[in-house]
Amino acid sequence: MIPKNTICLWYDGGALEAAQFYARTFPDSAVGRVLHAPGDYPSGKQGDVLTVEFTVAGIPCLGLNGGPAFKPDEAFSFQIATDDQAETDRLWQAIIDNGGQASACGWCKDRWGLSWQITPRVLIEAINDPDPAAARRAFEAMMQMGKIDIATIEAARRG
C-alpha cells in the first residue's frame, strides 16, 4: 500500500545503498520496493535503480536517484531520539564510520549528505526544564558538544 504522505529524498545514484544502511542501522527501518527505470532518463539508463521505497524509524521515505543536480543540506534532517548513551554512541558512530561527518550539537551528516540529529531524550527534557537556569545550563553545555554526552548534560542541568 502506498502511504498518503512520503518523504522523497534525492540521491546521486546511492538511494538503494543508503536505504540498506538505514535499515541496518535504525530500529523500525526497512527497505521496500525497488523500481528500476523503464527507460533512459537524464541521470540514468533503462534498468538503473530509479526509486527505492524505505522506512527510517517508522517514517515512510522514497529515495530518488535523481543525479547530481540537487544536494541535500541541513534545512532537512532526521531527528532520532535516543534512550541512553549506548544508543546515542552506536547511531552516531554508525553514521560517522560509514563515511559520514560529525557536526555540532548532536548533528552529523551521512555519506550521502543527509543530516541527522542524534538526540538523547534527556537533552530534550533538559532544555525544556521549567527552571530557566537549568535549561540554560543544559543548552550551553550542548552548544559545546559534537556528539551529545548525557552525563555532561545531566550535570549541567543540576548545576
Q: What does this protein structure show overall?
A:
The protein is elongated. Helix 3 (121-127) packs parallel to helix 5 and helix 4 (132-142) runs antiparallel to helix 5 (150-158). With 159 residues, it is an alpha/beta fold. It has helices at 15-25, 85-97, 121-127, 132-142, 150-158, and strands spanning 7-11, 30-36, 49-56, 59-65, 77-82, 101-102, 107-109, 115-120. The chain folds into two domains: 1-70, 2,3-Dihydroxybiphenyl 1,2-Dioxygenase, domain 1; 72-159, 2,3-Dihydroxybiphenyl 1,2-Dioxygenase, domain 1.
Radius of gyration: 18 Å
pLDDT average, as an integer?
A: 97
Number of helices: 5
State the order of secondary-structure elements, H for helix, E for strand. Answer: EHEEEEHEEEHHH
- Number of individual domains: 2
| β-strand number | 8
Structural class: alpha/beta
The description of the largest β-sheet is: 4 strands, mixed
CATH superfamily of the largest domain: 2,3-Dihydroxybiphenyl 1,2-Dioxygenase, domain 1
Shape: elongated
What is the CATH level 1 assignment of the largest domain? Alpha Beta
Please name the CATH topology of the largest domain: 2,3-Dihydroxybiphenyl 1,2-Dioxygenase, domain 1
